[in-house]
TrEMBL record:
Keywords: Cell inner membrane, Cell membrane, Membrane, Transmembrane, Transmembrane helix, Transport. The chain crosses the membrane at residues 21-39, 51-70, 91-113, 154-174. One of its GO terms (molecular function) is transmembrane transporter activity. Part of the tripartite ATP-independent periplasmic (TRAP) transport system. The complex comprises the extracytoplasmic solute receptor protein and the two transmembrane proteins. Belongs to the TRAP transporter small permease family. GO terms for cellular component: plasma membrane. It comes from the Bacteria. It comes from Sulfitobacter mediterraneus. Residues 30-181 form the Tripartite ATP-independent periplasmic transporters DctQ component domain. This is TRAP transporter small permease protein.
Length: 189
């Protein structure tokens, strides 16, 4: 069982490390969009797409970088208490709190799946089976949702990024859970 846990930890950490390193460069994309927005508003006609595109890039940056942040331990903790605890006590507290985080992320993932199904034109009550049907080709895509702004981009791509980000975050939380279990068994991670 320990070998399976270590293999899972290695695989998930590798995927989230690479994804996090790629997502880090999203800040430069965001800066470029905002720079163009400033230049176009000052010297030309204002671009209609810059504000909404900056929001989309920020969502991707934040959601895809979250698992990487959790992996590195750079997430916010209450160090006033947590910092002085023994490694074993930290592992017990992390073991409990990561379960609460997984529950929260599962709720967010279901909401993201429902929202993505809606943006693909599905208005019934089984969004998960619908998305699997779209992937396999057994379901048809309906009327695609668009933003209500003047630019009117399709909404499904950013909602798909949310599904991917929440899934990676859940996988990273399970990796952290396995790390805590191994720490409690006295193993080095």
């Amino acid at each position: 069982m320990r070998g399976v846990m270590r293999g899972y930890i290695t695989a998930v950490d590798a995927v989230n490390y690479r994804m996090g390193r790629i997502a880090m460069y999203g800040i430069f994309v965001l800066m470029g969009i905002l720079l163009w927005s400033s230049v176009s508003k000052t010297f030309f006609l204002p671009s209609l797409w810059t504000l909404e595109m900056a929001q989309f890039v920020m969502v991707g940056y934040y959601i895809l970088g979250g698992p990487y942040s959790l992996q590195l331990g750079s997430n916010v903790r209450m160090d006033l208490l947590y910092g002085g605890w023994s490694p074993r006590r930290k592992a017990w507290v992390d073991l409990f709190t990561v379960l609460l985080l997984i529950f929260y992320l599962l709720v967010l993932l279901y909401g993201a799946i429902s929202s993505t199904a809606y943006s693909l034109g599905y208005w019934k009550s089984e969004p998960i089976s619908y998305l699997f049907g779209v992937i396999t080709g057994s379901e048809e895509v309906g009327r695609l949702e668009r933003s209500s702004s003047v630019w009117r981009p399709y909404m499904w791509p950013i909602k798909l990024v949310m599904i991917i980000g929440f899934t990676l975050m859940i996988l990273q939380c399970l990796s952290e859970f396995c790390k805590d279990v191994l720490r409690l068994k006295g193993e080095e991670i």
